[in-house]
Amino acid sequence: MKTRIAVIFGGTNTEHEVSLVSAQAIIKNLDQSKYDILPIKITKENTWITPKELSASYTSVLPDKIVSAEKAIDSIDDIMEDNHIDVVFPVLHGPYGEDGTIQGMLELMRLPYVGCAVTASAVCMDKVLQKNICQSYGIPVAPYFWFTKNEWQTEQEDTLHKLTSQFHDQYPLFVKPVNQGSSVGVTKAHNQQELIDGIELAFTRDIKVIVELGISNAREIECGLLGRGDNAESSVLGEIISDNEFYDYNSKYINGNSHAIIPADLPEEISNQIQDTAKLAFRVLDCYGLARIDFLVNRETNEYYLNELNTMPGFTPISMYPKLWEASGISYSNLLNQLIELAVTRSKERQSINLSK
């Protein structure tokens, strides 16, 4: 019998469109001799939609273009009785998809699912918590300062003073919403006015903001992780060459002029150190299955800093995660197979635990 995979995509956040393209690529690359595919779209209005019947033709169209034989549902629970699901692939980026919320729902439903569990998803989505844990294990991160929307609104002068004092009035500074992905709401500030404008923009995307010191002569280096948290494999490293001042949302998905160098041109010793650091971060953040870990590397000194860990990286045709593994000898389809196998393995391990008295 084939394994039935429910591919959930879309979502109610700013990364909805990225999720659609990721899902399209995943559906096209799932081995139809091994899997029956149940596409489930979450609209921006939080309506769940699933096709009544599955067909191979669905693999040749964008998921958001599936208009025939659709059925609106309230949640995945509505299709449990009619459709046996073996594994869920939540191809959801950002809030309400990558932050532990849907993972918690799937845990309650006892459904195996691809990717990190609740704790890792929630912690890694929060850039402040992520950095706090990494720092406690000696993983280098760029100097940072964070604060809430309430603090900014009630104590703006004092907050701004603490912020600039911590960085000794150094610029540039990167301003980010704490719980967002794909560089949504991120700005690069070269002076105090740009800093204030960036903070105001970031607070339209989250109630917590983090400000980070820009790394001099920074190269953007990315690493893919695959496997168990205590025994993950690392891909080769890749370097992003942005067509903008930094790798923002437009550079990633709109302009189309950024490109990647895989493998990255780094001394072997530095590459090994970054890969080891990536594995350590993957473990201490309790990750499982997959993650893409981004580093900033000083072009002159080769000092490196962990910038961010993404628990459900993009799977679009231009996304780094599948490209890194392809360069490491694992095809897109085989990568999906391994992720699904890992999901089943973890579910079996969880079910073997006695949680009752």
Folded structure, characterized:
This protein is an alpha+beta fold. The chain has three domains: 3-113, Rossmann fold, CATH 3.40.50; 124-139 and 216-348, ATP-grasp fold, B domain (D-amino Acid Aminotransferase, Chain A, domain 1), CATH 3.30.470; 144-213, 2-Layer Sandwich (Dna Ligase, domain 1). The protein is 33% helix and 25% strand. It is built from eleven helices and 14 strands. It has a five-stranded mixed sheet, sandwiched between helices. A hairpin with a 2-residue loop joins strand 10 and strand 11. The longest helix has 20 residues, at 332-351. It is globular. The relative contact order is 0.14.
List the helices and strands and how they pair.
Blueprint: E1 3-10, H1 16-29, E2 35-42, E3 48-51, E4 70-73, E5 87-91, H2 101-108, H3 118-125, H4 127-136, E6 144-148, H5 149-154, H6 156-166, E7 173-177, E8 187-189, H7 192-202, E9 208-213, E10 218-228, E11 231-241, H8 249-254, E12 259-261, H9 268-284, E13 289-298, E14 304-310, H10 320-327, H11 332-351
Parallel strand pairs: 1-2, 1-5
Antiparallel strand pairs: 2-3, 3-4, 6-9, 7-8, 7-9, 10-11, 10-13, 11-12, 13-14
What distinguishing features does this structure have?
Rossmann fold, alpha+beta, 5-stranded mixed sheet, 357 residues, D-amino Acid Aminotransferase, Chain A, domain 1, 3 domains, Dna Ligase, domain 1, 5-stranded antiparallel sheet
